Amino acid sequence: MYAIVATGGKQYKVNPGMLLDVEQLEGAVGETVRLEAVLAVRTDDDGFKIGRPTVEKAAVVAQVMKHLKGPKVINFKYKRRKGYHRKVGHRQSLTRLKVLEISLNGAH
To answer: What is the DSSP string of 71-85?
Structure first.
């Protein structure tokens, strides 16, 4: 069983029990969060359900494991012979989630 879920402007394929790094979400470490934007679900018995735009009453329940920062990305701009250079670094704030279950009936 797996689901395609959208969060933080990105889409992720998730299975129960997997760890996932997403854009930073609200919630303390140890809390459970519900990701309601489930785009598609593949189950063992029902087959494949595609949402328009999301699957009705479907949600992914996950536990916040920790908040962290991603790798440093360097942006360097340079124009030759003009004495212009600019260096900017960025580290994205992330949240590590552990997927507990994929719920299809909206209850949890």
So the answer is: --EEEEEEETTTTEE
